[in-house]
Design a protein that fits this description.
The complex is a heterodimer of chains A (705) and B (553).
Chain A (H helix, E strand, L loop, with lengths): L35 H13 L3 H4 L3 H19 L4 H38 L4 E6 L2 E6 L8 E5 L8 E5 L1 E5 L1 H4 L5 E4 L6 E2 L4 E2 L3 E6 L7 H10 L7 H22 L1 H8 L5 H11 L2 H20 L2 E3 L2 H9 L2 E5 H5 E12 L5 H12 L5 H12 L17 E3 L7 E6 L2 E7 H10 L6 H12 L3 E9 L2 E14 L3 H10 L3 E5 L4 H11 L3 E3 L4 H13 L4 E5 L5 H6 L2 E5 L4 H6 L2 E3 L6 H39 L17 H25 L8 H33 L5
Parallel strand pairs in A: 11-18, 11-20, 18-19, 20-21, 21-22
Antiparallel strand pairs in A: 1-2, 1-3, 3-9, 4-7, 4-9, 5-6, 5-8, 10-22, 12-17, 13-14, 14-15, 15-16, 16-17
Chain B lengths: L2 H32 L5 H10 L9 H24 L15 H12 L15 H31 L9 H27 L9 E4 L5 E4 L4 H10 L20 H26 L2 H28 L3 H6 L11 H14 L14 H12 L10 H20 L5 E2 L2 E2 L2 H28 L1 H5 L4 H16 L14 H31 L15 H31 L2
Antiparallel strand pairs in B: 1-2, 3-4
Helix pairs in contact in B: 1-8, 1-11, 2-6, 3-4, 3-5, 3-17, 4-17, 5-6, 5-13, 5-17, 6-7, 6-8, 7-8, 8-9, 8-11, 9-11, 9-12, 9-18, 11-12, 12-16, 12-18, 13-14, 13-18, 14-16, 14-17, 16-17, 16-18
Classes of the chains: A alpha+beta (705), B mainly alpha (553).
Chain lengths: 705, 553
């Protein structure tokens, strides 16, 4: 027996199951407010990142750090120069702010990792051997070992149930406190190390090595330890590095020109100019943007095995969506009562409700609800207990109908063939009309349930209940939004083409794959990819695994098999297939944030030139004072203002980097125009205002202005 | 007709002619480069050089062709100048000095045509016509070939093949440059340009002094010098010389010639990538910058303060009265923005700010519309950068014409972007730091600095025009500017061809509503903005100490 105590994920996750959980549609993106406290808490980590071995990984900030060292040396050699000290201080602050941005982003992940780590206890495993079982530490397990877990045990490692069925508490990883059933065979056989068996006994075959379990991977992911630069981030880094080289060149070559002009510049001024020109804003925030992007997924309870997958999500042009659970609610529901000619609708509704009271299936309940909700039938909600002498006939696979016998009256409801059979058996007549109605409902993709009543007058059919798939609220609008984003949606269903077509039309998907087999899915993905499209899909079964692996973005449901989880590059802990849409948006948001801040950073340079160049050369060429359009008070103040602005803008933009630029599902052109307006034009204007304000403040300091 | 009306009419006439001709010419060029047929003279040439014109080349092979051919051209030109005295029709001129011969050879093979010599007093007929004028054709055809290779990179998929360099080179020369320049030369002769192999005439001037009047194959060189965006004049005075550019009509024709291929190639590009719109977006970006430059310089020149200018009605120093302010400004902007470098007025004499615009035109990397071929590939490289940043802003991995702009593509585009600023700023800084720049100046102060900056800008961007007065014939300047010209020409080609190869291998991404539309005005605006901001930011400090310091008083 395991001796470890039950594990909870942490304060925010324990207690009631729902409040702390993100609601996918609400777009919650930030965990707690971003404020001075968070900055202060991240300060030690930011200082640690001043290590040159860490700094060198971000070329832009490394150049700033080198500049800071240089000005520090110069300031020390000329300690009376307040300007040198001020520039030095602000250059160091620029580096520190960049580190702070990264540290804050990482800090958010770390909090989550800590709670996860508490779940990863060193459980004792009861390994099955040829002659009974032995107790070994969970860390000694190897792939293929079979372990026994009974009620109260922690499952010692990831694996598949090969024997038995048990209810398992998976709140440690999903935050969901309701237990789930795990059983051998089928698509519900995967168990995760660190989760707890609540009842019964299962034998688990271990599928991962210790240290590589799901929880381990999750911890390293949210901590950012496993973070590798994504392809797009690398490409952007190259562009930023080359811009840095160009500006380095522009500044280094400036000195001989300045000497000729008789306006030799101090190294402090040149360092300040360089730092202002190179794209420090985006350089400082780039890694924070990436970390925050992953973090946003984690907050939506999605784990991506790589940042590459998140980026790919932004590029997806085809979404394969399972009908059930994604497009429609999990079960069919009663939508309409259709009485036959010699029955009234009230009669039908009453009988349908009566016959369904004992029916605990979702379909049955939906009939009760529909009958009660429709006040025009003049019914009130009834309960099983109200009818004391009733004899309930439960639904069985054999009879395919359910009902009740009470006070000599029998009511039956069920599959058309069964109920009409029952009516005929009791001497009743079934008109052609019934076949007409049921045929029409089937054609429209629904399921007809026939309701019949037998009393002293004999048996007769009252009418038909139309059960249909209920398309989720708002899903049509989401698909329309996806279409505007250029994403094609394909509904995957096991239904026949007729049914599939009806639902596809109602939900507004672009295409559907009916009677889909795993092979069909695979073929569809390959066909799309051959046309250069990126495909995203969700899946949970073992037979989904090949398709999940083939898709560019494969989101496995946490309730699924370990084969599926291995094959996909993301796991949704909530097992909510609709989340695929969120994932695409997060991917896009990540790229947009990078692009927007790059544009902002570059546009900023123009104002900085107008501050610094006249400050440097007005003494030699008085005409250049015309470039001082901001009318900055003194050359020193102008240069310092630009440097201060450059540093402060990093901190000002940290919340945006963490939250991401808001994404709207609109056409690419409109999106571009909007973002160019905000970040391009904004980036052009903002520093003119910012530098002017800082200059006004600086000129207030006595002895400087 | 007042002056303004005349200038507006002149610009309109030029723009209308270009608009009229770009379509047939662009389509014709697309047909030339995709045709499967070889003309008989072309087959002779292939047999002579032993090339198989139908073999498809991957980018390294294509690049080897470009470099090998250019290296041979360089050596040939160098030798021709060094042994000029032993060649026929040398007119008795001495061999050119080693450093100047290198500079000139580099200049003509790199399509720069920077001249540190005075044509009529240094080069014999054979060197001018058989060496330099031949390179006017070939170096231009090389530029077009490289542009075509890049276009094929966008147009093709799942192949590394970029066409055949030899066939592109020969077809560009035989089917495009030669017929158009023959036609143009005939028209130029009709307007009064000269064409002979005569020895110089000695004439007695009215004041009794002697004058040495040179003749030569001027009209033919004039035609290809402009059509091929070369710029090397037969005479030192270049297109300001009445034998080269006798009238306002010939002036308009010459401007048309130097703009026509660069503005038609985007149409060829659009045809070959299957969307003419894409070509027009590129051409529009080129046109917007060019037009803005024309307006800026013309207005500045008219407004130039100073008593002499006031009297003349404009800043007429260094300009020909037969072209006037409008014809000179229009020519100056067109020649600096096309990497041509032929001049009909002295850029040195332009007001400080106008000189700055002319320099900025070159500093943009010769993309508006740029040299034949080099303008198109330069603008496409800029488009790759613009697409990358803008593409991120629409939330997708950036793609241009269905090709993803990933790590490798951005690496190559970034390297391309680095070359000319490094050469311009590095070269100028070296010359200023070592004092060689200051020694060669004819002016002092900011204007003197502008002369040096202009020289390296012109050389590195393969323009070839100069701030006249700059004494460029020193071993240091000949060598350093020569190197700038070679590196500024061939290093970018390496990156262009490598990029073309990587694009051709990709399979295309289908266009969706989420794709950035690159064939629309918004993208044109973005492209203009990207070009101006990136180059503007790079060169602003240098420009501040030269043209801005001089112009803002």
């Amino acid at each position: 027996m395991s001796t470890t105590t039950p594990v909870r994920i942490g304060p925010e996750r324990s207690g009631t199951p729902e409040p702390a959980r993100p609601d996918a549609s609400s777009g919650r993106t930030a965990r707690g407010p971003f404020g001075p406290r968070q900055l202060a808490a991240s300060l030690p980590e930011a200082l640690r990142k001043l290590d040159p071995r860490v700094l060198v990984k971000a070329p832009v900030m490394f150049v700033v750090a080198v500049g800071s060292v240089l000005t520090s040396v110069l300031a020390v050699t000329d300690p009376g120069d307040w300007f040198g000290w001020a520039i030095t201080a602000w250059l160091w602050l620029t580096v520190l702010f960049a580190n702070l941005a990264e540290a804050v982003a990482e800090g958010r992940g770390r909090a989550q990792a800590d709670t996860l780590r508490r779940a990863r206890t060193d459980a004792v495993a009861r390994r099955l051997t040829a002659d009974g079982e032995e107790e070994i530490p969970g860390t000694a397990l190897r792939i293929g070992d079979r372990v026994v877990c009974e009620a109260g045990d922690l499952i010692p490692g990831d694996g598949d149930v090969v024997e038995g069925v048990a209810s398992v508490d998976e709140s440690a990883i999903t935050g969901e406190s309701a237990p789930v059933i795990r059983e051998s065979g089928g698509d519900r056989c995967a168990v995760t190390g660190g989760t707890k068996v609540l009842s019964d006994r299962i034998v688990v075959s271990v599928t991962t090595k210790p240290g590589e379990t799901f929880i381990d991977r999750m911890i390293s992911l949210v901590e950012g330890a496993a973070r590798q630069k994504t392809p797009n981030e690398i490409a952007l880094n190259i562009l930023l590095a080359s811009l840095t080289v160009i500006f380095l060149l522009a500044v280094v070559t400036l000195q001989p020109f300045a000497v000729y002009a008789g306006a030799e510049q101090s190294l402090i001024v040149l360092s300040a100019l360089l730092v202002c020109l190179i794209p420090t804003t985006i350089g400082a925030l780039l890694s924070a943007i990436g970390i925050a992007g992953m973090d946003r997924l984690v907050q939506r309870n999605v784990l991506a095995t790589s940042g590459r997958a998140v980026e790919a999500a932004g590029d997806v042009s085809t979404l394969l969506l399972d009908k059930t659970g994604t497009i429609t609610l999990g079960n069919r529901q009663a939508a309409e009562f259709i009485p036959v000619r010699d029955a009234s609708i009230g009669e039908l509704a009453d009988a349908a409700q009566l016959s369904s009271l004992a029916d605990e299936t979702p379909e049955g309940r939906s009939i009760v609800v529909l009958a009660a909700a429709e006040e025009r039938y003049g019914l009130r909600e009834r309960h099983e207990g109200e009818l004391a002498h009733a004899e309930w006939v439960p639904f069985t696979a054999g009879t395919r109908m359910s009902g009740v016998d009470v006070d000599g009256v029998s009511v039956r409801k069920g599959a058309a063939a069964s109920v009409t059979g029952w009516v005929r058996e009791h001497g009743g007549h079934v008109g052609e009309e019934v076949h007409g109605i049921t045929g029409r409902i089937s054609e429209a993709g629904g399921t007809p349930l026939v309701v019949a009543r037998r009393d002293a007058d004999g048996a007769r059919v009252l009418g038909v209940v139309h059960l249909k798939d209920v398309v989720k609220d708002g899903i049509r609008e989401r698909f329309a939004a996806l279409r505007r984003m250029g994403i094609t949606t394909v509904m995957i269903t096991g239904d026949n083409p007729l049914t599939a077509k009806a639902i596809a039309a109602e939900a507004g998907v672009d295409d559907f794959l009916a009677e889909a087999t795993p092979e069909d899915k695979m073929a569809l993905i390959k066909r799309e990819q051959a046309g250069g499209k990126l495909v995203a899909m969700t899946g949970d079964g073992t037979n989904d695994a090949p398709a999940l692996a083939q898709a560019d973005v494969g989101v496995a449901m946490n309730t699924g098999t370990s084969a599926a989880k291995e094959a996909g590059n993301m796991v949704d802990l909530d097992s909510d297939p609709t989340k695929l849409i969120d994932i695409v948006e997060i991917g896009k948001q990540l790229l947009i944030t990078r692009g927007a801040l790059t544009t902002f950073s570059l546009a900023n340079d123009i104002a900085k030139y107008f501050a610094i160049i006249p400050a440097m050369f007005t003494a030699a060429y008085p005409g250049l004072d015309k470039l001082n359009v901001m009318a900055l008070s003194t050359p020193e103040s102008a240069i310092l203002s630009a440097v201060v602005f450059n540093a402060l803008i990093i901190i000002a933009l940290v919340p945006l980097a963490l939250r991401g630029v808001r994404y709207r599902p609109i056409e690419a052109d409109k999106l571009l125009r909007r973002n160019l307006g905000i970040y391009g034009l904004g980036g052009l204007i903002a520093p003119f205002l910012g530098i002017k304000i800082i200059d006004l403040l600086i000129s207030l300091i006595p002895g400087i202005g | 007709m007042n002056q303004t009306t005349a200038d507006v009419l002149q610009i309109s006439a030029l723009a209308a002619a270009l608009a009229l001709v770009h379509r047939p010419l662009g389509d014709y060029m697309a047909a030339v480069y995709t045709s499967r047929r070889h003309l008989r003279p072309e087959r002779w040439i292939y047999r002579c050089v032993g090339a198989d014109p139908d073999a498809e080349m991957r980018w390294p092979a294509y690049l080897r062709g470009v470099l090998a051919f250019s290296a041979v051209s360089l050596l040939f030109l160098y030798a021709m100048q060094r042994f000029q005295d032993r060649l026929p029709m040398s007119l008795g001129f001495e061999p050119i000095s080693p450093d100047q011969a290198f500079n000139t050879a580099a200049s003509f093979t790199s399509n720069t045509n920077w001249q540190s010599y005075a044509g009529e007093s240094a080069m014999g007929h054979l060197t001018q016509t058989g060496g330099l004028a031949v390179q006017n054709f070939l170096s231009a055809a090389v530029g077009m070939a490289v542009a075509l290779a890049l276009v094929r990179g966008f147009a093709r998929s799942r192949t590394g093949e970029l066409g055949n360099f030899w066939s592109d080179l020969v077809r560009g020369t035989v089917r495009i440059l030669t017929p158009v320049s023959v036609l143009a030369a005939v028209v130029l002769v009709a307007t009064g340009a000269i064409q002979n192999f005569a020895s110089p005439h000695e004439v007695q001037t009215l004041s009794g002094g002697g004058q040495h009047i040179s003749g030569g194959a001027v009209a033919s060189q004039e035609a290809i010098k402009n059509l091929g965006t070369n710029g090397g004049g037969f005479f030192n005075a270049n297109s300001a010389h009445p034998f080269e550019n006798p009238t306002g009509v010939s002036n308009l024709l010459e401007m048309f010639l130097l703009l026509v291929i660069p503005f038609s190639l985007p149409r060829t590009f659009g045809k070959l990538v299957g969307s003419v719109r894409q070509g027009y977006a590129i051409a529009a970006a080129m046109g917007v910058i060019w037009f803005a430059g024309v307006i800026a310089v013309t207005v500045t020149e008219y407004a130039h303060p100073g008593s002499a200018s006031q009297l003349a009605g404009a800043a007429m120093e260094g300009k020909e009265t037969r072209f006037g302010e409008g014809g000179s400004s229009l020519f100056a902007v067109s020649t600096t923005m096309t990497s041509t470098g032929s001049v009909n007025s002295f850029h040195d004499s332009y007001s400080g700010l106008s000189g700055g615009v002319l320099m900025l035109g070159m500093m943009l990397g010769e993309i508006a519309p740029g040299g034949v071929g080099s303008g198109l590939y330069g603008m496409l490289m800029m488009a790759v950068i613009a697409v990358f940043v803008a593409g991120l802003m629409v939330g997708r991995t950036p793609e241009y014409l269905g090709k993803k702009i990933g790590t490798r593509q951005i690496k190559l585009a970034a390297c391309y972007l680095l070359v000319t600023p490094s050469l311009v700023l590095g070269g100028t800084a070296l010359a200023m730091g070592l004092g060689d720049g200051e020694a060669a100046m004819t002016n002092t102060g900011a204007h003197g600095f502008s002369e040096v900056l202009y020289a390296y800008t012109s050389g590195s961007n393969n323009n070839g025009s100069a701030f006249a007065g700059f004494g460029a014939d020193t071993p240091f300047l000949n060598t350093s500017i020569g190197l700038c010209m070679l590196l500024g020409r061939f290093l970018p080609m390496v990156f262009v061809l490598a990029l073309a190869g990587s694009l051709a291998r990709q399979s295309p991404v289908p266009e969706t509503a989420g794709t950035l539309r690159t064939g629309k005005p918004l993208f044109t605006g973005l492209l203009v903005g990207a070009a101006l901001i990136i180059s503007g930011l790079t060169f602003f400090p240098a420009l501040a100490l030269g043209p801005l310091a001089e112009g803002l008083v």
